[in-house]
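tool=predict chain=A
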Amino acid sequence: MNNKVKLINIVSIACRAGKVMSGEFVIEKALSSKNNIKLILLANDVAEATKAKYEKMAKNSKVLLRYTELTKDEMANSIGKTDRAAIAICDEGFKKVILKILDN
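tool=predict ok
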């Protein structure tokens, strides 16, 4: 199984466990309220302005931001939504597993 499939699977599991937030407004609000976001994942086909916005939000909130090889559609499908450029992981355990997959 390749890393892309592993990433989709673990994000799906995290979503079913209630440890995923998605959508620009939801993530931005959670970051500003010091919610427990551990990791932000960005799709590989997001616009430059979107990248810059999430990079700024992550830096200001001191949250790790990682780019994935998933497209917006693949990312959205993995959590049962449509058109998601970013998702936030809210669990340290899932964060560690996802980083292990991304670093391979």
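DSSP finds five helices and four strands in the chain. The two ends are 13 Å apart (CA to CA).
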